[in-house]
Amino acid sequence: MEEDTLYNILIAISIIGIIVILVLIFTTKTTESFTELYFEDHQNLPNEINLNEEYSFEFTIHNLENEKTNYNYKVYEVIDDITYYIDSSSTTLDHNSTATIEETFQISQDFETAKIVVEINDQEIHFWVKQW
Predict the structure, then answer these.
(1) Which of 8, 20, 55, 97 could form a disulfide with 46 if both were Cys (CB 3.0 to 4.6 A apart)?
(2) How far lies 91's CA from each of 48, 68, 79, 119, in Å?
(3) What is the spatial distance between Cα 36 and Cα 85, in angstroms, rounded to a whole number?
(4) C-alpha–C-alpha distance, residues 105 and 52, integer Å
(5) Which domain CATH number covers 93?
(6) pTM
(7) What pLDDT tens digit does each residue of the chain (132 aa) get?
């Protein structure tokens, strides 16, 4: 009889504990905020290019900052430590909104490798291209 009572008390405590944990999980607001910046279709980014031909790629900004945020972005290429600007602009996104931006570029001078860079609010992503 005492064992049954003890088991019932342990079961009740376990159920109450599970309920408390579930309530905490679903009602606690996370304060961590960040922005995702990534290339769309990253496996098909240009990697070998011909001079004076136009190439394109897309990148996405996903706002997870828990507030409306303005993003200033720059797109540029770096060849032999020299920066050539492709584009710069800005976009404002509400929390949990995304913007996908298409960029085109062409390189007209000879090079071995070039770095194509997207930079927003202290974040950077890039990929490398070689001359074909």
Answers:
(1) 55
(2) 30, 11, 27, 13
(3) 23
(4) 9
(5) 2.60.40.10
(6) 0.76
(7) 677 888 889 899 999 999 999 888 888 766 789 999 999 999 999 999 999 999 999 999 999 999 999 999 999 999 999 999 999 999 999 999 999 999 999 999 999 999 999 999 889 999 999 998
